[in-house]
């Protein structure tokens, strides 16, 4: 008695899964793409540190005591400087977050440059099928406009000749 005669051997071959060719994370291309995100993250950390420092310095100002007169403040106060500082800090924070978002999105969608971004966007929007290079857009719109006018005129002429209302 041999074990091979007692139990027939079944072949367990699974269909091969589709292989997706992707760029490894440590490749030059991927590192260049992720560097935009890293620059945005570094700018965000720097702008956060500057914002925290500005808030801390603002809180360190000597608050006036309760019964002190406010007609002659003890320090120079400029609302314009405070407003400009707030606008600058908010702009730095928003731009750095924007750079991080753009860098992360480009890395996620594996886009490495402006030409690739244009190609991907035009492919998604069907740019080539909308704007066919062989035909002039003005001629195409003129033909469709003329056809529509002629069709409406013929329908109008048919309605007048029949005398009965169309349902």
UniProtKB/TrEMBL annotation:
- Where does the UniProt annotation locate this protein? Membrane
Spell out where the chain crosses the membrane: 34-51
**Keywords attached to this entry:** Membrane, Transmembrane, Transmembrane helix
| Region entry Disordered, spans | 1-21, 138-167
Cleavable signal peptide = none
- Protein's membrane topology: Multi-pass membrane protein
InterPro entries reported in the protein's UniProt record: AIM11 (IPR038814)
Name a GO CC annotation attached to this entry.
mitochondrion
Family to which this protein belongs: Belongs to the AIM11 family.
Q: Write down what this protein is called.
A: Altered inheritance of mitochondria protein 11
